[in-house]
Design a protein that fits this description.
- With 306 residues, this protein is mostly helical.
- The chain has two domains: 19-64, no CATH class; 69-306, MetI-like (MetI-like fold), CATH 1.10.3720.
- The protein contains 14 helices and no strands.
- Helix 1 crosses helix 14, helix 4 (77-105) runs antiparallel to helix 10 (199-215) and helix 8 (173-181) runs antiparallel to helix 9.
- The longest helix has 32 residues, at 13-44.
- It is flat.
- It starts with 12 loop residues before the first helix and ends in a 6-residue tail after the last helix.
Length: 306
């Protein structure tokens, strides 16, 4: 018998044209998304006089790194960096742990008042007391002008709890039942069964919590008056508003006079704004690739049933 050799079907012209146009569209879209970050970076390492005049658009010119060296010498920036790192690490850990445990508990039929407490938490997504009552609450709890005002108010996040609850419900119940038959308690089941199997959704929540904590500056504006507790984002907000005076301050602190520094490295309001922005944005740009493989899987779990 002659063996039938199946030839691979060639794509039609319309399909080929669609694929080409699709790839071109997404390449252009990707470049549009990347360009603002690229523009910031090349302007921070290019000659400051050219950058201030808008002459740096695609390639850096007269490359130097004095902007980063000088900006990092600004008073309070190092302390603010540690505050932002601390609140991001601790706040993210607390939020993820609370979301994981509460999301797990709301799937347990034996939990007392399970439906009431779940609905109570969900309602808070749509209603809140407002800014002034929230400030008075923080003040009465003695959390204003403390580091913990960054952590405690955001530990319980209803949306994250819903995500975890939906994910846990997709896990076969037999895993928990087998552990309980072997004598495992609620904490043991949560620690040895739920946490290891919920890595995708916990990674997703980690991204949400980390980005929120790192980018937040309004809580500093409302609750903090002591400079040692300023976050990096709040300092960025202040520096952008005071870039002119800050550029003059850096210039005077580096040299004895304005003629000491070359025009290429002399600080300008534009260089200060862009350099501080890059310093603040870079950590988040490194976090996303680390958790990207978990993100889509975690956020989509439970959206399709059956």
């Amino acid at each position: 018998m002659k063996q039938m050799v199946k030839k691979k079907k060639k794509p039609e012209r319309s399909e080929l044209a669609f694929d080409i146009l699709n790839h071109i569209f997404f390449v252009i879209f990707t470049l549009i998304c990347i360009y603002p970050f690229y523009y910031l970076i090349i302007n921070t390492i290019s000659a400051n006089d050219l950058s201030a005049n808008g002459m740096i658009n695609f390639l850096p010119k007269k490359i130097h790194f004095d902007n980063y060296i000088n900006v990092l010498k600004i008073r309070g920036l190092g302390t603010a960096l540690w505050v932002s790192v601390g609140r991001t690490v601790i706040g993210t850990a607390c939020t993820v742990l609370a979301s994981a445990f509460l999301g797990f508990m709301f799937t347990q039929q034996k939990m007392w008042g399970r439906k009431f407490w779940y609905r109570f938490i969900v309602v808070t997504m749509y209603f809140n007391a407002g800014l002034i009552p929230m400030f008075l609450t923080m003040k009465n709890l003695h959390l204003t002008n403390t580091f913990w005002v960054y952590i405690i108010p955001v530990i319980v996040q209803p949306f994250n709890i819903i995500l975890v609850k939906t994910y846990v419900e997709s896990i076969p119940a037999s895993l928990q039942e087998a552990a309980k038959i072997d004598g495992a308690g609620i904490i043991t089941v949560f620690r040895k069964i739920i946490l290891p199997t919920c890595k995708p959704i916990l990674a997703t929540i980690s991204i949400f919590a980390a980005v929120t904590q790192w980018n937040s500056f309004q809580d500093t504006l409302i609750y903090i008056t002591e400079q040692k507790l300023y976050s990096l984002q709040y300092l960025l907000y202040c520096y952008i508003n005071q870039a002119n005076s800050l550029a003059a301050l850096i210039k005077n602190s580096v040299g004895s006079g304005s003629n000491v520094m070359a025009l290429a490295t002399q600080q300008t309001p534009t260089s200060v704004r862009m350099t501080v922005t890059v310093i603040v944005v870079l950590p988040i740009l490194f976090i996303y690739p680390m958790f990207q493989r978990y993100f889509v899987k975690g956020i989509m779990i439970g959206s399709v049933k059956g």
